[in-house]
Amino acid sequence: MSSCGTARYYAGFTPATASEGMVLLGPSSVQFYLDDKNVESYDDSLSTVSEALIATLVNDMPLPITGRIQLDSLRKEEAVGFMRFLNTKDAKVRGEYPIPDLLDEILEAEGRRYGLLIYADGMSRDTKGYAKEVAKDVLLGVATAVLTMGMASIYGTSVYCVSHIYAAILDSETDRIVFYNMSVPTESHPLKIGPVRKQLDGIFRDFLK
Which of 44, 98, 139, 153 has its CA at 20 to 30 Å from residue 52's CA atom? Predict the structure, then answer.
């Protein structure tokens, strides 16, 4: 499986265009946790750690980042909604859709043209709860195989964890995004340094050529 999508540049933008620098907005992360009863809930602590990890790894990359702006709860909500919206649209819509006013205002207030917006979402779970789900899936698979005279395959084993990262570069001058890419959702823990670094490397591979 590929580690990322296809990087998309807009409005004649190239990595060289951003050589003057861009500010890191956030990052923003929404992480969920499944407990031993397989009840899912938003986990603020996991989300905060994820944001810090991504910020550290991004700053270690040879990207032209000249600063970081932490997003308050209102702007973070705007950033998350915007990135989720972009993920549901095709390249043409992404390129034509204006960036949110709240994010545009941040860049203009800081006198920055470009802002790098990164959003991550993911899930991790309790080990015992996961084991229960796997056992259920195996029993279901065996029962299905019996009913279909051995012709069925066991392929529904529950996922233990998921990590997904999106990135967009905002242009406050044109009020549009000028770069967009995302990782393919991977079954890796969203707080493990190695897999997260690999996802980020894939997202910015073309940008850093």
Answer: 98
